[in-house]
């Protein structure tokens, strides 16, 4: 019985072992099957991947040039002679060298040109022309590429050039141009521009060497630079747009015959490095925004300029807005010139010049406010301006008796002797200094020293025409032949040895003129003596009028009958100022005072005189008549005294400023009129 049970158990055990072995075999079989399937799947996947890669590679048409023989592998492109035509959107790789050749893009959609050690030149037409479809250009890593337009420079006027059917750039497109990559691209714009998009031009990277007989980079609607390294030499603008220019980042060295960066609308610099070694004007636009970056401007005219005409002729709101960056300007004209407002809220600004009296370190027609950042501006005192009194950050202005050369150390220290600021970076001579930073406290006195000159100046908000708190009671320097500039308030005007004196300080005594025209003696003071020529204009404080026309003896007496003078004009006075002609007077003028005699009596003998003169010969105001103050402009003219600190700012421009802006506008209009670029 036990044996049967044992045998039965043995059979059960053997059966279980058999089942176990069968299960293990089944599992091994299934595993082998799965492994085989996975291997097959991996093989399929690899084949699909390879097919996809081959498919991508097959979609890039290769265009290779060797010994001026063109080989095209792929679709979408064809060649005839030395002209390659791309008529289908897609990717194209170009390599080799094509002389006297041309690439014409005429496709519906985007065309990607991958330049891989490719060079093309043409002496009769533009080397690369995009007629339709956006043009994307990529420079392969480590590649050297070149596009050369070797046509002679266009000497037609701007308006005549508009009528030309010629493509005006080495790389030209009617649609967008987008350039990227890490390779190198040399572009020679012999005819006019180097790169010109009639729509939008965008550059995101690469290394560029660009020369042009007109503009370097030209995007009609917009020009955006997001990165890259550039060496640009141009006869006209380096960067140009009829719309906006945005420099977001990159490094650029510019030698420009006209503007370095020019936008007909808004010019914005966000970051990057801009080194302008030569230009007529550095940065120009209707609105100029500087938000960051390191900027060096060398210019023969204005360094930063808010100016220009709108495309539709509408009135523009000009402004220069600086909120960041490190900016150094070495101008031949104005340092920062806004035909509207100037707003400084950040950044570090150094304006080195100008040294001539017809321009200013900062120059504006609207208002100028500073709420942050720092500025050191040096230049000639002739048209020197400060910030408006609505600025929240104080500033100081210091006038020197004599010019100092560039390189002299400027030191500003507080009352305890602690140094607040020092600089010796100036290269041009100057006799006026403006400084503002958050380190200054309004109402506190600071010691300013420049070379051997030293004075205490109180920080405050300066007026728009503005002089802040310049030294009081100082004596004006002598002018040896040229224009004097601006002596300090309350000081004595210097003597002019031969040239025009200008205007001495208010309340001071006018200097003697040794030969030339005196100009204008001080307000309310006694006019200086003229040794040879006519006096010019007598003292302010009531309009004196004009002295009589002198005869040979200076008596001003008319020798014949006066007849009937024209309506609305006074008779010319005789030597005694009686207004009586030696013949019949006829009818006196209507509503106008007579011109003054030599003594300024202004008494008419012939009837109702309308409005009598307001001044006598000694400059005394007729108390019975109100005086009309002169219309001061917003600018301080050469030879004009500083405005009183508490005086209000006039909205009017000075005549010389208007004249200067008009001349600049006319010159710009003449240079760039009508260019549809």
Keywords:
mainly beta; 677 residues; 3 helices; 13-stranded mixed β-sheet; 34% strand; 16-stranded parallel β-barrel; disordered C terminus
List the helices and strands and how they pair.
Blueprint: H1 2-59, E1 60-66, E2 69-73, E3 77-80, E4 83-86, E5 90-98, E6 102-106, E7 111-122, E8 128-132, E9 135-139, E10 144-149, H2 158-162, E11 169-173, E12 177-181, E13 184-189, E14 193-197, E15 200-203, E16 207-212, E17 217-219, E18 222-225, E19 229-234, E20 239-241, E21 244-247, E22 251-256, E23 259-263, E24 266-269, E25 273-278, E26 281-285, E27 287-290, E28 294-299, E29 304-306, E30 319-331, E31 336-338, E32 341-352, E33 362-364, E34 368-379, E35 395-404, E36 410-413, E37 419-423, E38 430-436, E39 445-450, E40 453-458, H3 655-672
Parallel strand pairs: 1-5, 4-6, 5-7, 6-8, 7-9, 7-10, 8-11, 9-12, 10-13, 11-14, 12-15, 13-16, 14-17, 15-18, 16-19, 17-20, 18-21, 19-22, 20-23, 21-24, 22-25, 23-26, 24-27, 25-28, 26-29, 27-30, 28-30, 29-31, 30-32, 31-33, 32-34
Antiparallel strand pairs: 1-2, 3-4, 34-38, 35-38, 36-37, 36-39, 39-40
